[in-house]
Design brief:
7 strands; 27% helix; 5 helices; 170 residues; 7-stranded mixed β-sheet; Aminopeptidase; alpha+beta; globular
């Protein structure tokens, strides 16, 4: 098992993984697939000995927040769940963010069907930071998890020294 980047030839295997992992509805799979290869996001895959994807994570920065990274998608082949693949991807993100950020956020649903995902995030050291009631639809809350990154060197970036990463154009 090793972790490396996305390759265009991975698309059909990733699509199958997303459909079969049990965590996404069809329109979510479509959105996730649209991000593959997009330079605005970082993508990592766990691969088996035959180079088949066993897990996927897509993450990136929030361009308007100082040192904030977000995990947008994480999925593990259903046959490999509870075998360390997802946790390996989480560690990969945390190590990759390293000196580049101060916190990592993950959003998920508050529905009972997502209890496994929320427990997974908590097992990996993420804590519920916010909840917006009825966000996705009535009765379906948005739950935001947070974990502090270990490094603070992102503050050396001149973009953030002025106090706000936002700029306005006139």
């Amino acid at each position: 098992m090793r972790i490396d980047g996305y390759r265009p030839e991975d698309k059909s295997a990733v699509e199958r993984l997303l459909h079969e992992c049990g965590g996404f509805v069809p329109h979510e799979v479509t959105v996730c697939l649209s991000l593959l290869g997009d330079p605005e996001y970082e993508t990592a895959l766990v691969r088996d000995e035959q180079e088949r994807p066993l897990g996927l994570v897509i993450y990136g920065t929030d361009p308007l927040a100082q040192g904030v990274w977000e995990i947008y998608w994480i999925a593990t082949d259903g046959r490999c769940q509870r075998r360390g693949v997802g946790s390996a991807l989480m560690r990969h993100v945390e190590e990759s963010v390293g000196t580049r950020g101060r916190m990592i956020l993950i959003e998920t649903s508050g529905q009972p069907a997502y209890a496994y995902q929320r427990a997974f995030y908590e097992k990996n050291g993420y804590r519920e930071a916010a909840r917006i009631r009825d966000f996705y639809k009535p009765g379906d809350d948005l739950v935001v998890y947070r974990k502090d990154a270990t490094a603070r060197l992102y503050l050396e970036d001149p973009q953030w020294k002025s106090g706000s990463g936002c700029s306005s154009k006139g």
